[in-house]
Specification:
There is one protein chain. The protein folds into three domains: 4-185, Ferritin, CATH 1.20.1260; 195-251 and 328-414, no CATH class; 256-318, no CATH class. Helices cover 74% and strands 1% of the residues. The chain has 15 helices and two strands. It has a two-stranded antiparallel sheet with strand order 1-2. The longest helix is centred in the middle third of the chain and has 47 residues, at 226-272.
Length: 415
């Protein structure tokens, strides 16, 4: 497929016969994806107060609109009636709602994950058009990367990444100082990397499920003593939060110390056996396809800067990134806060009284929160929001039912 440049806009040619290799059901799904993306970016542009960011979102919306035009043309060519525009998926609506409350920067990882999902969907369809659209999704992720760094996008791609965008990517690679920096730049690589949002969601889930089970168990044993339920809930909240924080701190600190020890051992080897380490560097580059002379020249150049050589050996031999060893205190504080948020939900109703009202309010609020946590998980996984929400709700409800039954039995026995 050939793209032509018309002023500042990359123009995509009309529907191409290659599209006939894609079945119409898939084309309808693709059209729905693009319509959802149009809706999302138009909302983000309306929410954003910064002019350059809003312009970037409007540009992406225009790209998505051209994608939708491609699928509409393909469906018409196959004699399929174009369906009316409907409401977007719950996942897309949720991202827009979060952006309205917390700002567009707060949903950057969620939108990038959404772009990555669309890229994978199109990549699996294997046609010239879908490959070009998948390239667009990567270009959109590049815009998000630039926005996340606080800079205005230097390149706003149209229809697919053009020469300017490619030149910008080449320049970014030239000035990058480490593979980590390159990986951060290519935000469409979302392999399990959803950052702090993921940690928050699962921390809230742990606190909610564990303390709901505890509160329900004590309620089953001592339903007429709300002060016991409240005490148990608060104790469970604090014990669980501190346990989570301590566990995260110890885990992260131990991991960091292990990694630092491995790095220091590698540093000692470089100082004690420089020729051997030079040979190892050369071997690394021979394994990447360089001949003996080239590999030796690269190894010698790297060895001129011991820190650069050390980082290269650590990454290649140990699979570690010296710049990304993790923060123990950050992990501990994040786990503590997230657990407290989830664990407080079944406890709060008992601050205002007891009896059946507090019990049902606690249970009901917890079930709603469980469903909400499941929906939030779907933003990361791309699974159906209803499926993820119901799965989380049923798991939490099952844990609460079991502990309530056990508490009832124990309460009767003690009584």
């Amino acid at each position: 497929m050939i793209l032509r440049h018309d002023g500042a806009i990359w123009v995509r040619p009309p529907y191409h016969p290659h599209m006939a290799t894609v079945d119409t059901r898939q084309q309808l799904e693709n059209l729905k994806l693009e319509r959802d993306a149009i809706w999302l970016y138009e909302r983000l542009a309306g929410i954003e107060l910064d002019g350059s960011r809003a312009a970037a979102f409007r540009t992406i919306a225009g790209n998505e609109r051209r994608h939708a035009d491609i699928w509409e043309a393909a469906l018409i060519a196959h004699g399929v009636t174009i369906p009316p525009v409907g409401g977007p998926r719950l996942r897309v609506r949720t991202i827009a709602a979060l952006a309205r409350v917390f700002g567009t920067a707060a949903v950057a990882e969620l939108v990038t994950a959404l772009e990555g999902d669309e890229e994978r969907i199109y990549g699996a369809q294997a046609s010239p058009e879908t490959e070009a659209i998948a390239a667009d999704e990567r270009a959109h992720a590049e815009i998000w990367r630039q926005l996340k760094t606080g800079s205005s996008p230097a390149v706003i791609p149209r229809a697919r990444m053009g020469p300017e965008a490619e030149a910008a990517g080449v320049e970014a690679a030239r000035v990058a100082t480490s593979p980590t920096q390159i990986a951060r730049a290519e935000r469409w690589h979302v392999t399990g990397r959803s950052g702090s949002f993921r940690a928050i969601i699962f921390g809230v889930s742990d606190g909610l499920v564990s303390n709901l089970a505890l509160v329900m168990g004590v309620a089953g044993a001592a339903s007429s003593e709300p002060q016991f339920i409240l005490l148990a809930g608060i104790a469970g909240l604090l014990a669980g939060a501190f346990s989570m924080a301590a566990g995260e701190y110890i885990s992260m600190q131990s991991q960091r110390e292990l990694f630092e020890r491995q790095i220091e051992l590698e540093r000692a080897e470089m100082e004690a056996m420089p020729e051997e380490e030079l040979a190892e560097l050369a071997a690394i580059y021979r394994s990447k396809g360089f001949d003996e002379t080239e590999a030796r020249r690269i190894a010698e150049r790297l060895s001129a800067d011991p820190e650069t050589a050390l980082k290269t050996l650590v990454r290649e031999e140990l699979g570690l990134d010296p710049d990304e060893l993790g923060s123990p205190w950050g992990a501990a504080i994040g786990s503590f806060v997230a657990f407290c948020i989830g664990a407080s939900i079944p406890v709060v109703p008992y601050l205002f009284g007891g009896g059946s009202v507090a019990f049902w309010v606690s249970l009901g609020a917890s079930l709603v929160a469980l469903f909400g946590v499941g929906v939030a998980v779907s933003l990361l996984t791309g699974r159906s929001a209803l499926f993820s929400g119901m799965r989380q709700l049923l798991l939490g409800l099952g844990a609460a039912a079991v502990t309530y039954a056990v508490g009832s039995i124990i309460g009767v026995s003690v009584g």
